[in-house]
Amino acid sequence: MGAYTVGKTSVPASAFPIPKHGQNISRGERPWGYPPQGLSNCHAPMSGQRSSFNVNETFEETAAGGGALRLQKFIADAGICSRRNAEALITQGEVYVNGKPAVHGQKVTPGIDKVVVSGKTVRNQPQPRITLAVNKPRGLICSNDDPHNPDTIFTLLPREYNRFRFFCAGRLDKDSEGLVILTTDGELANRLMHPSGEVIKRYHVTLKQAFPATKLPRLVKGLTFEGERLKVERAALISPRADRTAFDLDVHMHHGKKREIRLLFSALGYIVLRLRRYQIGAVRLKGIPLRGAKQLASKEIEQLFRSPTTPHAALQATASEQTQLHED
Question: What is the pTM assigned to this prediction?
Answer without folding.
Answer: 0.71
